[in-house]
Amino acid sequence: MTDAEAVQPDAVPSRKKKQNKKVAQARKRLNFKFIRTEIDKPFCFLVFSLLVFGIIMMFSASYARSYAELGDGYFYVRKQIVSAAIGLVLMFFASFLDYHFFQNTVIAHLAFWGTWILTLVTSFIGVSTADATRWLDIGGFQLQPSELMKVGFIIIFAYIMAVNFPSFHNWKYSTLPFAIILGLVAGVLVLQRHMSAIVLIGSIGVTMMFVSGMPKKHFFIFIGIAAALGGCYLAYKIFGGGGFGYITDRIQSWRDPLSDPRDTTLQTYNSLIAIGSGGIFGLGFGESRQKYLYLPESQNDFVFSIVCEELGFVGAVVVILLFVMFILRGFYIATHAKDRFGMLMATGITIQIGVQALLNIAVASNAFPNTGISLPFFSYGGTALLIQLAEMGILLSISRQSKTNK
Hints:
Blueprint: H1 3-27, H2 41-70, H3 75-96, H4 105-125, E1 127-129, E2 132-138, E3 141-143, H5 145-164, H6 171-174, H7 176-191, H8 195-211, H9 216-239, H10 245-255, H11 266-278, H12 303-335, H13 340-364, H14 382-400
Antiparallel strand pairs: 1-2, 2-3
């Protein structure tokens, strides 16, 4: 063996350490630049289809309530169109902004900790509705910080996974940071009684961990411990008088929607009537009966029920297919992303929209207990729509640098 051959094995790790150091240093720089390559057109078409279809159906579902409560049948749809217009500007800007802007130590941590602290503050001084404190009233404008925290959560998860990936063999880097973050998020959402957000963010986090490349042993041990702790906590809260009795009521309402149609099962009962009344082809656009103050939150959580009543089974299938195609194309962008960070960001955003749509449709059809979760692009809500469109811009930015067929 020559001296050169004897030195060679040690030289390779040395070069790798230098490369890793350069990569780590690059992540500390603020990457603020614009990319002008072509976007993923099929995905962009799906986003616009969901947005236009959603605003039209939200208008139909909200007209009667808007007129009865505010004397203006166009109040909700006007605000939704304004939010959509601002959201499209944000989407357009984010689609050109290099998504590596978020792969920065300061930006990633600021995105998460800023929104987490804002959500925590809201838990104590926010506006309460139905015993849930989730909104901040700022000069007549209501903001729901937990919607912002979803984005911050995805960014910090993707950032840490991309940075820690070379050390994933050690559970301190592959599992511990994510367990701490999930625990912090779940804790602040419990204060707001926002169980639907816990389910949604938990689904996002678990999916991102699964596709991140962490050892499967670490992943399944984490799932087992988290499930055991979560189950014990819920059991104590529900059966030990800890304050989650409303969950038991919702489960009972889900199991028997006819048990109390004038109170606890009012929403579920009228939602099922709306869906059943639609039949195959529906009563016709604008012809819903349940939206005339029979079905609470018809413009928000139960807009899908109005879609079924007015457009029937055919309309419901179209909505579901649009979301299915959205999810498939989102995963397509994720699998063709330029790097691990882009793949994880695209996966997190796609899962967020997909799981949220699944839960909303399941609640409306009584396949899942009522969680108070909205239908993306369809439900009324300015904050949610703005954030969703901004996230679509990030996905389009990832597609600009991906290896997709455009």
